[in-house]
């Protein structure tokens, strides 16, 4: 097959792969700039994600504050799955957090939700990226439960796609999430919630 | 494999969906007679155009991104051999297995054998143009394996024993009440009180497929990008069915056209900005999955990548036509095309409809097999403007019209016209004769057979009572 392709190309000199890139290499604002966080929130809300902001600029957010907010999102007494390396103290009392140790798909399908951290977020597109790190876990745990709570630090927020790609490690399994699962297959009406989590809550700290 | 010289290997006949049963004008006439279809299409294309225009306007560097996308694709094609070898090495190193499929028959056989080896009788599928192109579902079914389409629109198409009519929204030709009826008829255990609210219909599909996702051990996908440098594959989607297929099963088989290879990781920064805005009119599609070979403990532990030619090397051999391979399947050209908007996707007879289909399908099959498609356009150029990687579709259409076998009558007429126009006396006589047709009136002005085909869908302008030369002579 490669011989066929080579013959089709007819021995012409190959074009250089180093092409002109006159587009923006990044945004004008540094990661975590309050205006970027504002933009991210706007984009997330536009895609019907629920956004929770904890404290403003510079104020220290304690894990207790996160736990309190997570407690408001999740129904009390429910069971959620958590990645094995979720920072301690993010779950409030009264929520059962089961660390994922290779749980079955059937079991994951029965839990009320999942709480994860994130790797990077893109303000311009309203995107959160998970890369399977210990505080984010296997891809499946943020897929089967119907509610996903994602805790994001402001310093993880970059302006644009090129900046996000520079922060990611290609070999890792990556999931880019822009709002809850959606479809526009029926008369192009956007409907949230087909197969992925129908509820996406983003807690920004 | 080295028999290429002289006869480029096009996609074989008798397998897959690149050739229609009838010519474009014949099929389009049927579509034009369906007012419901035209309403659905008009609504859909107008909506996507507006959404897409709004989010494209948000990016100050859209034109620079398009140019980078064009340049990257052109460079990729001219380095295709090296890039594919690099991709194979990277995927293999990351624990995947790479297979080479020269055509649809080979690809179908490879995938069928891989599924058989797992002992499973059912596979879940995420929407993929390549597997539809090669007729993989039909091949699997004849081997006793059930393919389940999991994309909502594909499910609608599959339940309706129908064919997709749009690259991105395959069920664009069905409205909500048609979909409701289909679900009530074809979906086992569906709630009989199901309404035609899109949210209710989507929820019905979620319930219907959840069990299948949890129990099926093999998935088949396509790929939007395959990165040579890292061996990373990427699938963009909306519903989460893609994530299900790419994450839950034990075995994943990805079928990718060879033109989908992207040189470096960094190049994704161009295509991930272009694709969603041009395609669904979103800043980013809800889900994008990227994986590199096998990740221990996360997702499928067996990964196969099938690299598909099926006529692509024949397209590559045409230096002008080659551009059609730059397509990233966004379907922006369909949504702006006045011909597609009226005729719909089925009229093109191939899984690739619209302007890009009119230049891609005839090249994959050889123009003789899709000879009417290069004419399925008014050459208005809207597709060129809309294309996120700047494929010059109008130029390709004209180029392919040249390559289409032309009827003898046309050659005779063109030769006669050339003779007449290069002899002033003959030309004057012809002009006078044409003037006589004024007495025939509007209806009678069609050309006589065998030229009547030309005037069956075109009006010949009425000849003026006085020619320019006569007017000039009087001054």
UniProtKB/TrEMBL annotation, chain B:
<dbReference type="Pfam" id="PF13183">
    <property type="entry name" value="Fer4_8"/>
</dbReference>
<dbReference type="InterPro" id="IPR017896">
    <property type="entry name" value="4Fe4S_Fe-S-bd"/>
</dbReference>
<dbReference type="InterPro" id="IPR003741">
    <property type="entry name" value="LUD_dom"/>
</dbReference>
<dbReference type="GO" id="GO:0006089">
    <property type="term" value="P:lactate metabolic process"/>
</dbReference>
<dbReference type="InterPro" id="IPR024185">
    <property type="entry name" value="FTHF_cligase-like_sf"/>
</dbReference>
<feature type="domain" description="LUD">
    <location>
        <begin position="84"/>
        <end position="307"/>
    </location>
</feature>
<dbReference type="InterPro" id="IPR017900">
    <property type="entry name" value="4Fe4S_Fe_S_CS"/>
</dbReference>
<dbReference type="InterPro" id="IPR024569">
    <property type="entry name" value="LutB_C"/>
</dbReference>
<feature type="domain" description="Lactate utilization protein B C-terminal">
    <location>
        <begin position="405"/>
        <end position="475"/>
    </location>
</feature>
<dbReference type="InterPro" id="IPR037171">
    <property type="entry name" value="NagB/RpiA_transferase-like"/>
</dbReference>
<keyword id="KW-0004">4Fe-4S</keyword>
<dbReference type="InterPro" id="IPR004452">
    <property type="entry name" value="LutB/LldF"/>
</dbReference>
<keyword id="KW-0408">Iron</keyword>
<feature type="domain" description="4Fe-4S ferredoxin-type">
    <location>
        <begin position="324"/>
        <end position="391"/>
    </location>
</feature>
<keyword id="KW-0677">Repeat</keyword>
<dbReference type="GO" id="GO:0051539">
    <property type="term" value="F:4 iron, 4 sulfur cluster binding"/>
</dbReference>
<protein>
    <submittedName>
        <fullName>Iron-sulfur cluster-binding protein</fullName>
    </submittedName>
</protein>
<keyword id="KW-0249">Electron transport</keyword>
<dbReference type="Pfam" id="PF11870">
    <property type="entry name" value="LutB_C"/>
</dbReference>
<dbReference type="InterPro" id="IPR009051">
    <property type="entry name" value="Helical_ferredxn"/>
</dbReference>
<dbReference type="Pfam" id="PF02589">
    <property type="entry name" value="LUD_dom"/>
</dbReference>
<keyword id="KW-0813">Transport</keyword>
<keyword id="KW-0479">Metal-binding</keyword>
<keyword id="KW-0411">Iron-sulfur</keyword>
<dbReference type="GO" id="GO:0046872">
    <property type="term" value="F:metal ion binding"/>
</dbReference>
<feature type="region of interest" description="Disordered">
    <location>
        <begin position="441"/>
        <end position="465"/>
    </location>
</feature>
């Amino acid at each position: 097959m490669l011989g066929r392709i080579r013959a089709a190309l007819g021995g012409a000199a190959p074009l250089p792969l180093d092409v002109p890139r006159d587009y923006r290499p990044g945004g004008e604002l540094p990661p975590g700039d309050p205006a970027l966080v504002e933009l991210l929130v706007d984009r997330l809300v536009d895609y019907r994600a629920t956004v929770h902001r904890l404290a403003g600029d510079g104020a220290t957010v304690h894990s207790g504050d996160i736990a309190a907010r997570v407690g408001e999102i999740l129904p009390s007494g429910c069971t959620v799955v958590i990645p094995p390396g979720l920072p301690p103290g993010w779950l409030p009392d009264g929520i059962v957090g089961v660390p994922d140790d290779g749980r079955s798909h059937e079991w994951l399908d029965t839990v009320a939700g999942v709480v994860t951290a994130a790797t990077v977020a893109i303000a311009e597109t309203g995107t959160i990226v998970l890369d399977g790190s210990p505080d984010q876990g296997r891809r499946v745990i943020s897929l089967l439960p119907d509610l996903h709570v994602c805790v994001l630090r402001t310093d993880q927020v970059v302006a644009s796609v090129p900046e996000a790609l520079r922060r990611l490690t290609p070999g890792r399994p990556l999931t880019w999430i822009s709002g809850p699962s959606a479809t526009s297959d029926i008369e192009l009406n956007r409907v949230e919630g087909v197969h992925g989590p129908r509820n996406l809550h983003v807690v920004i700290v | 494999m080295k028999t290429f010289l002289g006869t480029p290997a096009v996609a074989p006949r008798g397998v897959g969906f690149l050739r229609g049963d009838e010519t474009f004008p014949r099929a389009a006439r049927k579509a034009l007679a369906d007012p419901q279809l035209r309403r659905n299409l008009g609504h859909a294309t107008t909506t996507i155009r507006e959404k897409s225009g709004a989010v494209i306007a948000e990016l100050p560097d859209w034109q620079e991104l398009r140019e980078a996308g064009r340049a990257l694709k052109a460079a990729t094609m001219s380095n295709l051999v090296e890039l594919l070898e690099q991709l194979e090495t990277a995927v293999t190193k990351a624990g995947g297995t790479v297979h080479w499929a020269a055509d649809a028959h080979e690809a179908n056989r490879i995938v069928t054998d891989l599924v058989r080896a797992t002992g499973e009788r059912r596979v879940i599928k995420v929407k993929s143009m390549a597997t539809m192109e090669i007729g993989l579902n039909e091949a699997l079914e004849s081997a006793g394996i059930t393919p389940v389409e999991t994309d909502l629109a594909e499910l609608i198409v599959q339940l309706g024993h129908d064919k997709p009519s749009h690259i991105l929204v395959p069920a664009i030709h069905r409205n909500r009440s048609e979909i409701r009826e289909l679900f009530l008829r074809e979906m086992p255990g569906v709630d009989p009180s199901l309404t035609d609210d899109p949210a209710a219909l989507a929820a019905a599909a979620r319930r219907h497929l959840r069990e299948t996702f949890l129990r099926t051990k093999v998935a088949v996908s396509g790929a939007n990008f395959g990165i040579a440098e890292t061996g990373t594959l990427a699938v963009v989607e909306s519903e989460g069915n893609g994530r299900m297929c790419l994450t839950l099963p034990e075995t994943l088989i990805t079928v990718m056209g060879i033109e989908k290879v992207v040189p470096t990781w960094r190049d994704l920064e161009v295509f991930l900005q272009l694709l969603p805005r041009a395609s669904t009119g979103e800043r980013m599609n809800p889900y994008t999955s990227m994986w590199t070979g096998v990740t221990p403990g996360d997702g499928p532990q067996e990964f196969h990548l099938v690299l598909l030619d099926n006529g692509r090397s024949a397209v590559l051999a045409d230096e002008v036509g080659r551009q059609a391979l730059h397509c990233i399947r966004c379907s922006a050209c369909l949504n702006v095309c006045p011909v597609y908007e009226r005729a719909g996707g089925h009229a093109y007879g191939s899984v690739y409809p619209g302007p890009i289909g009119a230049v891609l399908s005839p090249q994959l099959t050889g123009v003789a097999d899709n000879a009417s498609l290069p004419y399925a356009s008014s050459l208005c150029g809207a597709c060129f403007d809309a294309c996120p990687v700047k494929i010059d579709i109008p130029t390709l259409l004209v180029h392919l019209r040249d390559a289409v076998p032309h009827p003898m009558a046309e050659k005779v007429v063109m030769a006669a016209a050339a003779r007449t126009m290069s002899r002033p006396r003959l030309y004057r006589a012809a002009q006078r004769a044409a003037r006589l047709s004024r007495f025939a009136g509007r209806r009678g002005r069609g050309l006589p057979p065998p030229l009547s085909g030309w005037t069956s869908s075109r009006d010949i302008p009425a000849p003026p009572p006085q020619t320019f030369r006569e007017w000039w002579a009087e001054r």
